[in-house]
Amino acid sequence: MKKPMIRTSWALALLMTVAPLGASFGQNAAEPAVTRILVQATTLKPNKAADWRALQEKEVLPALKKAGVPWRDYLETMFGDREEIISLRPLTNFAEFDSADGPLQKALGAKAAAALIAKLQDCEVSSQRYVIVRQDGLSITPGGAAGPVRVTTTFRVQPGGNALFADFLRTDVVPFMQQAKTAGKITGYGVSNAAQGSPEQGLRILTVYYANFAAYDAANANGGLAQQTLGAAGAQALNTKQARLGAAVRVVIRRRVAELSY
Length: 262
Description:
Blueprint lengths: L8 H7 L18 E11 L4 H18 L6 E7 L4 E7 L12 H6 L1 H12 L2 E12 L13 E9 L4 H21 L5 E7 L9 E7 L2 H8 L4 H19 L2 E11 L6
Antiparallel strand pairs: 1-3, 1-4, 2-3, 2-8, 4-6, 5-7, 5-8, 6-7
Helix pairs in contact: 1-7, 5-7
């Protein structure tokens, strides 16, 4: 991400922030509601991207629906690793992996699923599967097509600062994001924790959803979304408060591909 895209330091990085569907507020602080999401990050061979996309549309997506997977988001990277594709689906429990029959095997049978997987692997350079845990009480996510442009910041919290950072999100960031959503500047906001298999477990994954890139442009104008919503002093106070808690590691912009999602 180029520096101009995060010119208001962490605050804009936080605002230019992958978590998908659903929203929940007023959860019990002792037992916050969460949604476990399975992430498949795949790097494609440049000359095989069209083949991969055709396989996803014609074979993988129908199989996932047939197997009863409730939703799948397919995200292409616009600014970041352009060959990286992200696929998201809910993971109800890890017991799913006690069986060799995943969604493709259930829908297609073992032999046909193996043939499809082989065709997919022929399009790949690498693939990584990991889990993120969305914090529903800290999220204002719009769901599916309502937020096709997703700006995601991975954030590293200072050691021992997880509780303070969660409180900061709850008391400062989420109300501000709700104001921005009410004003039509964004369509949602999501907070997730990087979990099992993640490149760096424990990172916070902060996502801002936009209706389109024009809305993203507007959010970067006039000092950025924080200054537009809170004023210059309010944005600076937010920036200063967050700087004590950690730092943004990476900002990536992705777009949901409607025909490969449901």
